Amino acid sequence: MGLLFRVRCAAALAVSSAAALLAPAAGQAAAPRVAEGRPVVVHRTVPGPGRYAVTVTARSAGATRLQRTLTVQVADRRWKLTVHSRRAHVTRIVTVSSRRLRIRLQVTGGSVSLLRVAAKKRPQPSAPVSPPAPAPASSPVEAPAPTQAPAAPQIQLPSITLNVSTTPPAIVEPAFSRLVWADEFDGKRGSAPDPARWTHDVGGHGWGNAELQSYTASTSNASLDGSGNLQITARRERVVGADGFTRDWSSSRLTTKGRAAFAQGRLEIRAKMATGQGFVSQLWMMGDNVWDVGWPLCGEIDLTEILGSDTNTTYGTLHGPMADGTTPYATGHGKQLGVPADQAFHVFGVSWNADKVTWSVDGVPYAQETRASLPAGAQWAYAHPLYLLLDLAVGGTFAGTPTQATPSSANLVIDWVRVYG
């Protein structure tokens, strides 16, 4: 998500246990315990700019082996690599350049007994070599040995062992109990959402995330179902958006911009999510000053993002600015739901005040960020009013491209939205 034009970036989050994990594998002390959902960072300096193949290997307690390789160009850019296992865990890796690889590891369920990261420099393409001139017939010579490219140096990062606690970390959540704003979505079937509470973002320019849908204000994409729910529908159809972009998908994004914004409180949304490759259900908040200061300076809190390709995992994320006010960071947490979000309603919650943000599912907190836990140099951009956004996006860098197996339509169903202060 991200304002009107979404830019998704990720940055490593340093934690106190990271330094202990940087010791060489040989003779290292027992690995520290890492609570479920808590990120860990590993970083190493590489010899210099160039192309590197970063290989990540993980082995769960059940001997499930996962491996991914990503080619990165080390020259002031960012990449994101995900190693994923539905059975055991999710490990998210972010590499950041400028001669330093910073790798962020986050286990969100189960356990990892071994996780190894290796970076191997790829040789640069060499100039073509002209073949030798043929020797005279009277002077036979031995054929020259083929030219071999120099061996590529390899940078081996130490092995890392993560012991994941099965006991969730103790989280003290700010107390907000007075209902200050709500929509229960009561109304006739097919009627539009209450215009006194909601407005529409419209258009199909990609929303900063290369998304494939055009958001509309039509009740065919967002309407009440007559049973106390709001239904947001993404539909495969050719549509020319209000901004002139032609897309093959339509959907809807509702916001409270200009209607309601909240400086602190607790937001809860009971919802059932869309399923299918290429869909992502998104419930989030944006700084109400976005039109004045822009993104990421306005700050963004993602209550939940759930991929249609993995409806058993919810992701809660903060997006904000680094010290320069323009470079974005992202720090987030994942949580396994147990019952996938396309099969049952869940209550997704986030509490925030001037100093901390806490995420929960079905009333149970699972992650928290504070001013002190942000990456070094990151600004806290959440101590001012934020407005709400509800949308169902198609495609983009996070959800991926729909396939032939993707349904021609999908629904994000919201029972209610409540804000407590």
Could you walk me through the main structural features you see in this protein, from its secondary elements to its overall organization?
- With 421 residues, the protein is mostly beta strands.
- The protein contains two helices and 27 strands.
- The chain has helices spanning 290-293, 396-399; strands at residues 33-35, 39-45, 50-60, 65-74, 78-84, 90-96, 100-106, 112-121, 154-156, 163-165, 179-183, 199-201, 213-215, 222-224, 230-240, 246-251, 253-255, 265-272, 279-287, 300-307, 310-321, 328-336, 346-352, 356-361, 364-370, 386-394, 409-420.
- The strands form six sheets. Strands 11, 13, 14, 15, 16, 18, 23, 24, 25 and 27 form a ten-stranded mixed beta sheet that branches.
Mean pLDDT: 73
Low-confidence stretches: 1-46, 58-117, 125-168
**Net shape:** globular
> What is Rg?
25 Å
The helix/strand series, from N terminus to C terminus, equals EEEEEEEEEEEEEEEEEEEHEEEEEEEHE
Number of strands: 27
What quaternary form is this? single chain
User: Total number of helical segments?
Assistant: 2
- Tell me the span between the first and last alpha carbons: 25 Å
- How much of the sequence lies in strands comes to 35-45%
Largest sheet: 10 strands, mixed
Which class do the helix and strand fractions yield?
mainly beta
Helix percentage: under 10%
InterPro entries: Beta-glucanase-like (IPR000757), ConA-like_dom_sf (IPR013320), Glycosyl_Hydrlase_16 (IPR050546)
GO biological process, one term: carbohydrate metabolic process
Region (Disordered): 118-151
Family: Belongs to the glycosyl hydrolase 16 family.
